[in-house]
Amino acid sequence: MNIVLLSGSTVGSKTSTAMKYLQSEINQLESEHQVQFFDLKELDLSFSDGRNYLDYSGDTLTLTTALMQADIIFIGFPVFQASIPGTLKNVFDLLPVNAFRDKVVGIIATAGSAKHYLIPETQLKPILGYMKAHIMQTYVFIEERDFSQGTIVNDDILFRLNALTTSTLRVAKVYAQVLEEENAQYDF
Amino acid sequence: MAILKMNENTPLEFGLYSLGDHLLNPENGQKVSYEQRIQELIEASQLAEQAGIDVFGVGESHQEHFTTQAHTVVLGAIAQATKTIKVSSSSSIISAADPVRVFEDFATLDLISHGRAEIVAGRASRTGIFDLFGLDLNHYDELYEEKLNLLMELNQTDKITWSGQFRPDLKNMKIFPRPIDNTLPIWRAVGGQPASAIKAGRQGIPMMITTLGGPAMTFKDAVDAYRETAEEHGFNTSPESLPVSTASLFYTANTTQDALREFYPHLNVGMSFIRGAGYPKQQFAHAPDHRDALMVGSPQQIIEKILYQHELYQHQRFMAQIDFGGVPFDKIMKNIELIGNEIIPGVKKHLKN
């Protein structure tokens, strides 16, 4: 399967740290997956101006194409002003409607305060739902105190990230099988 | 207003159009040459004329996977190769062109074709043309509205004085040559949304609306809004004055199963190349339903779809896109044959009753 990990912030390190851990977890699993890692900090993206994503160039085209071709997407983001970062929203705006159809999406959120626990629920999931994603309902929420010196120091978070990885891959596998069965019954 | 002569011998004109798609044929992985692709289109227009089809349209796209960017040149060749079929753009991207030049080109096409030329003025669904001609995509709407209005004014007045944002002023200028009737039929291309249809109604200009897929009923809102708005603005909304045309992806074969099987690879690959996402099989499986706008099926199925849509829209013309996703020429010929032998007579018979 094509797996894309998107670290959805140009600021800070917590999200990147969590996403890199997640990547190492996936890499330890079965080897048939193609895994791509994108960190918005390292990309030079255009602002969406409404054109089809194929009409962009450079990093914008590379990222949007990878997302469109993915079977599984993990999105990590820090909470800014009680919502997702504008830079991450821009990525969604670059994509066409129904961009996440037949894709399974897992979510990781980092935040400075536990009070932001429902931000993925209220701010990100509605966008992913509109874009037709199959959303993993349980996400991993990580606070400032769970990090130290660029690593995750709370075992509970590590267990949750492991669980998110395996459950997302499981759902994607089941979904791919169902889709294949369904497609096989058509005579075209 | 332009003199738009609809065919009086049919309740619904039937047209074919192409954007000059130039894709790999997914069946054999082959891509024909530019030369062959353009020659095929010219030949298709002759076959269409022989099959009793009313209109042949060619559009421009200005990016990879398309051949007919110089669509007026191709239309000129088609005009010369045919005798009775109307020659139309499908569409001319007026936003990126100089309306004076477009008017000159189509007036000339009208003279070459002895009065068969029409313009469908579009806004561009792809943005390659903006990059190529150095236009700012932020002016997407303004460019279109200003240039379409100028084109309409050029059509209506012999001597023009005009000023705008995106083209040098015109002071008491005449445009040569004039078309045979002095004016050209000009349609506004509408992407399916009521907002654009309402603008067409406000301008009192014939509308060509794309009904690409999904439930046909969803486009009824736009058609109704078009006529209501035109009426509110004092235009004569009779079919002769403000006709409506629909434009759909099209594929027919002897049986619906054959049509589905033959067309799906083209639709899926074409959509992947052009829009960056394939066409889901689950969605395509709904295509044979007469209520689905996607025009794929046996001739009988297509007739049912056209009749159902005619009940909804009461439109005057149906335009079929015949070569989406690199449909090869032998299949295009078969489509034209089935349209001429079965679909057009079937539609006529039912609508006359």
Automatic annotation (TrEMBL), chain B:
Residues 24-312 form the Luciferase-like domain. InterPro entries: Bact_Lucif_Oxidored, Luciferase-like_dom, Luciferase-like_sf. GO terms for molecular function: alkanal monooxygenase (FMN-linked) activity. Its EC number is 1.14.-.-, 1.14.14.3. It is an enzyme of class 1 (oxidoreductase). GO terms for cellular component: cytosol. Pfam families: Bac_luciferase (PF00296). Keywords: Monooxygenase, Oxidoreductase. SUPFAM superfamilies: Bacterial luciferase-like. This is Luciferase-like monooxygenase. It comes from Staphylococcus caeli. The gene is luxA_2.
